[in-house]
């Protein structure tokens, strides 16, 4: 009985944490530290996010953005000692990862904040569960960076834990270049017929190449998308080989592309030098998908 009660209380606590208003997740300035709110906490929704980040609002909304809480901090009245915090609810862990993945690249500095964080002199970005967090510095002052790191860790501790999206395992981990995996909600490779998809870089036989997977749910959806992609490839490149469910094309900007239609998936390899490299990686992608 006690065990059941404990589990119920834990579940209630988890639900309460998940339903906490976003503005309550913004840390209060530490007492006696000299830091204070420069701009008090504000909230934004999908229909007015452009008022805050006009240039990136469409990208956020592509990832099913649900809401944001933001505030700016300053130490005393020193305009060199400022930073801002944006906490975004993206609805699902997959969308939170997706938006985060659009802001990262393998050469950046990484830290163990939330599930993963990129850290630079001017910003910190991380995701955890369904939340994406961005902290921007107002200067290069080391004290600002230290306060940003403290704030990032404080926020991460309040965010509920959630399993990593299972879709991220659809591209194999073996030989995958760390921090290169990106999740798209639409339009991957410039294809309007493509729904959501994954892209990553792989190191195969000392060659770094790209791989992609289109996340179609049925053959009725994936086959027309594959046919449209094949037609697009032939229009903008030189056909090297083609057979049912398979095409290889040399393109001016992306190099060689090998694409295959497998069950209800579209898989591909791009930017390779040797066909054997593409064949080996494509076989690994298909094997990872299973039946």
The helix/strand order is: HEHEEHEEEEHEEEHEEEEH
- Cα distance, first to last residue? 43 Å
Number of domains: 2
Overall 3D form: elongated
Would you mind describing this structure in some detail?
The chain is an alpha+beta fold and 291 residues long. It folds into two domains: 19-158, Protein Transport Mog1p, Chain A; 166-289, TM1622-like (Protein Transport Mog1p, Chain A, 3-Layer(aba) Sandwich). The chain has six helices and 14 strands. The chain has helices at 2-18, 57-62, 93-101, 142-158, 219-236, 275-289; strands spanning 35-44, 67-75, 78-89, 109-111, 116-119, 123-128, 131-137, 182-184, 197-204, 207-214, 238-243, 246-251, 255-262, 265-272. The strands form two sheets. A seven-stranded antiparallel sheet has the order 1-2-3-7-6-5-4. A hairpin with a 3-residue loop joins β5 and β6 (123-128). The longest helix has 18 residues, at 219-236. The chain starts with a helix and ends with a helix.
